[in-house]
Write a structure and sequence with these properties.
Blueprint (H helix, E strand, L loop, with lengths): L2 H8 L10 H10 L1 E5 L4 E3 L8 E6 L2 E3 L12 E2 L4 E2 L3 E3 L3 E6 L24 H5 L3 E4 L2 E4 L13 H13 L6 E10 L9 E10 L3 E10 L2 E12 L23 H9 L6 H9 L7 E5 L17 E6 L7 H11 L19 E12 L9 E11 L2 E10 L4 E13 L12
Antiparallel strand pairs: 1-8, 2-7, 3-6, 3-8, 4-5, 4-7, 9-10, 10-12, 11-14, 11-17, 12-13, 13-14, 15-16, 16-18, 17-20, 18-19, 19-20
Helix pairs in contact: 1-2, 4-7, 5-6
């Protein structure tokens, strides 16, 4: 058996869904193959064995029970693992992880086995999940994570995709996702992500993830994963001519510039100055900074910005795609409201669904150009389409999002008698 098939097999072992891909690849390099005949002891009671055993082929049973027929909980099949007191009930092949390498099963992070929490990029910490059972993960909203009175939509997408990715072997990477925002999330309580394994094929795998709070599904994601392969290649989309990120102002610098810009209304400048700016885990540089405000009309096709994760991310393509998915919801649906802004009008925008296609490998801690436009708004809904390019002009991701687009209702105050 070759390393690739071993790596793919290990990615299907439930115990290993908490591990970073680097750990799984290291385990694939050091496991040993052992064969046993039917009825042969694999490990006798009281023996230490040769490490952790993973059932590759065949069946085994846990010894020491008195029932005549083997109950399901005592029968070990493909992807099961054990450490002692087991008899082969058929011809059995196991992969054995030696004791010297068992530390690989206890990573500090789901993304990097050697990483400490204080050295993680902030967005990597946001996307960290705690495995609580097979196919079940828990995520939280960190105190300094972006939120807008509710769980940020990008956090749902990124964490749900992270949960799905941890149940797929690390040779398969997400190429498409479709997400639905069902209810508002409460950032004060944990989010449970339940992964449903819809299909595991040779080249593709499919997953559905439900995000649950208080027993209710509030967000759901469908994702498809593919093993890398050679194929035809073309790109018709051209990256627009924009200024290089190194020549543009950061959001913090742009904010300071707006505060002193005499072309902007004084009330707006005062509001910007008084508003607390929470730290973003994503660095953003707008290509076309202008003097538009929420009180002034601006073109629908105007929003283009460079972005990258702050800090250095772990070297895991699954993580980089989760980070891009997280960042993709920043200011995306708001583009469809731009043509309808005017003084005194308040617009309510709320995401309904979100779609992404990953065309090429991404590096989320390098600059990526996000270009977006709104082709249509009708019947209380607006649609935004987007593309992401790297510095070389390669099209990496195509996106679309639909959201509610309504004029915000002003609270009705009833006149009451004062007696």
């Amino acid at each position: 058996m070759n390393t690739e098939s071993v790596t793919e097999f290990l990615g299907g072992v439930p115990l290993l869904q908490r591990l970073p891909s680097s750990s799984i690849k290291k385990i694939a390099d050091v496991v040993k193959v052992k064969h046993f005949d039917s009825g042969e002891y694999v490990i006798r009671k009281g023996e230490s064995g040769d490490g952790v055993y993973f059932v590759w082929e065949g069946e085994a049973e846990v010894s020491g029970h008195s029932e005549e027929e083997i109950s399901p909980e005592f029968l070990l099949k493909r992807y099961d693992y054990f450490g002692n007191d087991v008899i082969a009930s058929s011809k059995l092949t196991c992969l054995v992880l030696p004791p010297d390498y068992c530390a690989l099963l206890r990573p500090k992070s789901i993304w990097n086995a050697d990483e400490r929490q204080e050295t993680r990029a902030s967005v990597e910490s946001i996307l960290h999940l705690d495995p609580i059972e097979v196919n079940l993960f828990q995520g939280i909203t960190l105190p300094d994570a972006p939120k807008f009175g509710k769980v940020f939509g990008g956090q749902f997408i990124g964490q749900a995709l992270a949960a799905a990715s941890k149940t797929v072997d690390c040779l398969k990477i997400v190429h498409h996702l479709q997400a639905y925002f069902l209810l508002v999330g409460d950032y004060d309580i944990p989010i449970i992500y339940e992964v449903h394994r819809l299909r595991d094929g040779k080249s593709f795998a499919s997953r559905r993830v439900d995000a649950v709070q208080k027993g209710t599904v509030i967000f759901t994601l469908l994702a498809s994963f593919q093993k890398e392969e050679k194929g035809f290649e073309h790109q018709e989309a051209a990256m627009p001519l924009v200024s290089a990120p190194d020549t543009l102002l950061s959001m913090e610098e742009l904010r300071e510039k707006r505060i002193i810009d005499p072309r902007l209304p004084r009330t707006y400048r005062n509001k910007v100055a008084m508003t607390k700016m929470d730290p973003w885990p994503i660095e953003i540089k707008f290509c076309d900074p202008n003097t538009s405000t929420n009180q002034t009309k601006s073109p629908a096709k105007s929003l283009r910005y460079w972005f990258r994760a702050k800090g250095k991310l772990s070297d895991d393509q699954a993580l980089h795609r989760c980070v891009v998915a997280y960042a993709s919801d920043l200011m995306f649906i708001e583009v469809c409201s731009n043509p309808h802004r005017k003084r005194g009008r308040k617009i309510s925008v709320l995401s309904l669904n979100h779609t992404m296609w990953f065309h090429r490998p991404v590096k989320a801690d390098d600059w990526l150009l996000f270009v977006m436009e709104s082709p249509s708004a009708y019947n209380g809904r607006g649609v935004v389409a987007g593309r992401m390019f790297n510095l070389n002009g390669e099209l990496l991701v195509s996106l679309a999002q639909e959201g509610l687009l309504r004029e915000a209702r002003t609270p009705h105050t009833e006149i009451r008698a004062k007696y």
